[in-house]
Amino acid sequence: MRSPLAPGVRFCSSFSRDSWYRSFTLFLTFLSYTAYHLSRKPISIVKNELHRNCSMVIRPADLNTTDNETWCDWAPFDQDNYKTLYGMLDNSFLVAYAIGMFFSGIFGERLPLRYYLSCGMLLSGLFTSLFGLGYYWNIHSIWYYAFIQAMNGLVQTTGWPSVVTCVGNWFGKGNRRGFIMGVWNSHTSVGNILGSLIAGAFVSTAWGLSFIVPGLIITFTGVLCFFFLVESQFDQSSFSLCRKAQPSRKSPTHYIEGTEREPLLHSATITEVTSSTSSHATERSEEDHTQAISFCGALSIPGVVEFSLCLLFAKLVSYTFLYWLPLYISNVAHFDAKAAGDMSTLFDVGGILGGIAAGVVSDYSGGRATTCCAMLLLAAPMVRMVAGLMLLVCGGLVNGPYALITTAVSADLGTHESLQGNSRALSTVTAIIDGTGSIGAAIGPLLAGLISPTGWNNVFYMLISADVLACLFLSRLMYKEVRGWCSRT
C-alpha cells in the first residue's frame, strides 16, 4: 500500500507556479533593499567612535602621545569641527543620492532591471567596503571619505526604482496593495536594525569591519539578484512557453504546470504552442516599443507633485533620526557607541509597525493622503519624546507616511488611469517621488548638524515644523478624499 503524499509536498503543490514566482520575487526584492539600508546605517554608528571623550577611555600602556584630549579620536574628526565634518559626510551621500535618483528612474525604464539592480548592488558593496578599508589603510583625509560617500550615494539610486517596479509588475492594483507593500517595505527598518547590530558588533574594536561586512553582504545579495530575479510575469510566462515548445528527450510524456498531460505533442499541438509563443513574442515586441514616459509627463500625473513635496519633509524627519539618533542618545543618556546603536533600533522596529498600519488603514479607507496627514499630525508632538519605549511610537508615526508614499502611493501613481495602460512609467514616477524626498533627506541631517550646537530642543522644533509642512502639501488631496466619502454617504 502506497503512503499518502507528504504534507509538505501537498502544501507546496497547492500553489501555482505563478504564486511561487510572485512570492520569490517579493522575498528577493525585500532581501535586496534590506541589504541597501544595511550598508547605509554603519556611518551613524561609527560616528560615536570617530570622536570620543578620551578622558573616559583607558589609554593603552604602549601608546606614546602628548595629546591627552584627542588621543583616542580618528583624524580628521579629532577637532572641534567634527560635527561639521559629520554633516559633510552625510550630505556627500545624500546630495549625490538625491541628484542621481532623478536620472535613475529614466535609466530603469530603458535598461533590464535585473542587470541594473545587480550592478548597482555590486558597486554599492565596493564603495561601502572602501570606506571601511580607510581604517586599515590608515587614511585620514576627509576628501577620501567624502568621495566614497558621494559615489556610494550615486550607485545606491539603482535600488529603489528597480525593486518598486519589480513588485509593481507582479502585484497589480487591488484592495490589499497597501498592506502587501506595507509589510514588504519593512525592509527599510529591518536593514537599519541589522546594520546597527552588525556595525555595533565591530565598532569598538575595529570600526573598519562595520563597513566591510555590510559591503560583503550587499555584494552577495547582488549576485543572488543576477541569477534569480524575475522582473515581471511576462519573463516567467515566456520561460514557461519556451519549455512547453520543447518535447522532452527523456520521457514520452509532456508536463505543463507540474501535471502530466497527453503523450508526445502532436504536430497540431506543436503548431498551436509555436503560434502562441510567436504571439507572445509579438506582444513583447510591442511592449518594448511602448514609449517610456518623459520626466514632464510623469510630473503631470495627478498627485505626483503633492506627494513628492510631502515626502520631501517626511523624509527630512526620518533621515534626521536615521543619522543623528544614535549620537543624540549617546550625548543625552551617556551611552557608549554600541549601546546607543542598539537603543536606536527601537525607532526602526516602530517603523515596521507604522508602515504596515499605514498600508492597512489606507486600504480599508481608500484614503492614502488622509492616512498620511493623520499620522504626520500625530508625529509632530511625538518627535520630542524619543526616550525608551516612546521610540517605538515615534518611529511608527514618522516612518508610516514615508513608507506608504514610497510604496503603495508610488505604485498607484505609476499605474494611474491617465497613463492609458502605459506600463513604462512606474520607475520614473517612483524616482521622481523618492528623488524629491531625498532632497529633504539631505537637508535634514545638514540642518541638524548646524542647529545641534545651539541645543537639541531646536533640532526637535525643526522636525515638528517639517511634519506640519508635509501635512499642508497633502491638504488638497485630503479634502478631495473626505469630500468623496461624504458624497458616498
From TrEMBL:
Family: Belongs to the major facilitator superfamily. Organophosphate:Pi antiporter (OPA) (TC 2.A.1.4) family.
GO molecular function: glucose 6-phosphate:phosphate antiporter activity
GO cellular component, one term: endoplasmic reticulum membrane
Pfam short name (any one): MFS_1
Database matches in InterPro entries: MFS, MFS_dom, MFS_trans_sf, SLC37A1_2, Sugar_P_transporter
Domain of life: Eukaryota
UniProt name for this protein: Glucose-6-phosphate exchanger SLC37A2
Membrane topology: Multi-pass membrane protein
Organism: Gadus morhua (Atlantic cod)
Cellular localization per UniProt: Endoplasmic reticulum membrane
Catalytic activity: D-glucose 6-phosphate(in) + phosphate(out) = D-glucose 6-phosphate(out) + phosphate(in)
